[in-house]
Backbone:
């Protein structure tokens, strides 16, 4: 079972590579008409997430169409709260809504540490994808970080401030820790089962890291990510904590191979804070892909130059925006492939 | 015309003060039932902004009710685009909407450098407020920073990503600079007239600073803020660039007296990056005010301890959230007043 293209895994481990590997967050779905075709044939976003055949199909599309160096399983971070007992709805143009939220100690009964089997449909999608990929490129599995899932479970939806979830940390620190523990236990079982099903790398998305004051990030997010990193011994791990610029030195201490940078993070400064023992992933501004072909090419080269050939996986600094022209994504990918050639 | 309480101005200039001055961003409006009473008696938010008598009334309320050390004129950053030719509507629970936006070179004709007189209603509100304050505390005037106003004028509304406004910077850099120039010229006339009318300090809000990559922030925001800072020679200036952690050293070079910190910014690190020649303003997490009285008190003291008696104006790290209990705001203010007593 040898991967034909294992650039991503070698780069993650700090091994030499012929060129910089490249993929995009949210590449599975969002921008391709081929994705829309599959998506429109089904009832809802969540139906697609829960249909292993279709999830596998849209996972493989960007490998075929865009030529990325990795696939990432098509799924959603909110399958974990759902498995724990808090179902959600995905409202078009509004985002996720949780009809039931965690408000007080009695609500803790509503959520349990989920048995990994509850998420069997994800592992089935992973197995099908591995078969369809036929070892062409690695498959990335993922999970939301405990704090980010907690934020949705308490707030009940996306939010500019997440003030309800954040005030919970001030008012109910012990209850918060209990909920975060249950989420973390669920995640560990879940990512272990993803690896068992065939994923070659796990990425942890702490999408709402940047909304916490540094001391809360250290108390209510990092220790739980640390537990997950320590539990994963089988494959490389990537931690992407969007906006947590204040925690880069702390994240550098985690048992992970790769650290994601968002587009606000200065590359050289990040390298200095993080040191040479981690691979950095990122971090072109997703808006740079709205430029002309030659502007996309220039911006991509400028980004590559700043990494100066150090341990690097090329990506955007955030998920690709839905209205991005796939042709520009192709220019980005092709520029990385050619310009980073050694 | 001596101010009875000039703590804010002395702290801004780095002069000795008996204790740390304190006020809150968005203190005029939002949390007080007395504000809601005035607001409900009028047609809309914009009607209130344009009624000098009522704007003055709600500006003075927090001085009377909460005991803050400064008033900030009740207004909106979007009066500037409106004066330039782009009117907006304020939609309840959604925020501002611009029916017309700047999309291309021909749209530049839609906006002009506004004559300061266009905003006479703001200066009238300032004059009335000064009379009602009767020199009890200073009055703060304000403006949005050029980039933040540009973001609304191009995007047409608030946005999680401001991808339309940000892509404009990539695709139309020269047009962007022209628009930013016009906004800057308008702002300079506007703040000069605010000072003429009686404001004792000007704060520049760059609310969407944190969404730009560092090199875009340096190209499309800082030079315009610099021009405004250089133009204001009459009163102290505060620059609050939310999320622009990567630009703290650059902001320290501006002709301003005070730099605002948001709640993500580490106080000691910020002091190190900014140096001793500026006053820092902030930066308690607005969510800390959702705690019990004793939790609010503890959090406020922890914040004050971190400033270690250096040049400081106490505030939150963001505008006060609308559902905050005014009693907690009072605990925050009283704790600053007592605990910082020298």
Residues:
């Amino acid at each position: 079972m040898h991967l034909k293209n294992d650039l991503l895994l070698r780069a993650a481990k700090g091994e030499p590579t012929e060129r910089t590997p490249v993929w995009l967050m949210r590449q599975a779905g969002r921008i391709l008409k081929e994705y829309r075709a599959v998506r429109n044939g089904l009832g809802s976003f969540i139906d697609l997430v829960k249909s292993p055949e279709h999830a596998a199909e849209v996972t493989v599309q960007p490998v075929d169409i865009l030529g990325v160096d990795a696939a990432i399983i098509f799924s959603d971070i909110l399958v974990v709260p759902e498995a724990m007992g808090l179902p959600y709805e995905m409202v078009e143009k509004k985002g996720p809504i949780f009809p039931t939220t965690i408000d007080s100690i009695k609500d803790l009964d509503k959520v349990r540490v989920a048995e990994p089997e509850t998420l069997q449909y994800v592992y089935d999608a992973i197995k099908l994808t591995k078969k369809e990929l036929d070892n062409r490129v690695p498959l990335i599995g993922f999970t939301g970080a405990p704090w980010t899932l907690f934020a949705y479970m308490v707030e009940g939806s996306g939010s500019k401030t997440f003030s309800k979830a954040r005030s919970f940390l001030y008012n109910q620190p012990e209850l918060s820790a209990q909920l975060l523990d249950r989420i973390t236990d669920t995640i560990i079982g879940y990512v272990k089962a993803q690896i068992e099903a065939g994923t070659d790398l796990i990425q942890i998305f702490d999408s709402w890291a940047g909304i916490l004051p540094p001391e809360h990030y250290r108390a209510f997010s990092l220790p739980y990510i640390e537990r997950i990193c320590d539990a994963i011994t089988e494959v490389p791990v990537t931690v992407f904590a969007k906006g947590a610029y204040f925690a880069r030195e702390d994240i550098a201490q985690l048992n992970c191979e790769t650290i994601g940078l968002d587009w606000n993070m200065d590359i050289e400064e990040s390298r200095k804070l993080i040191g040479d023992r981690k691979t950095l992933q990122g971090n072109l501004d997703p808006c740079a892909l709205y430029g002309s072909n030659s502007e996309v090419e220039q911006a991509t080269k400028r980004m590559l130059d700043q990494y100066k050939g150090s341990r690097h996986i090329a990506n955007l600094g955030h998920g690709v925006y839905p209205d991005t022209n796939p042709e520009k994504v192709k220019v980005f990918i092709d520029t990385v492939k050619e310009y980073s050639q050694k």
Chain B touches chain A at residues 160-161, 163, 166-167, 169-171, 210, 212-214, 216, 243, 245-246, 263-266, 269, 285-288, 290-292, 295, 299, 317-318, 321, 323 (CB under 8 Å). Chain B has a mean pLDDT of 96. DSSP finds 15 helices and nine strands in chain B.
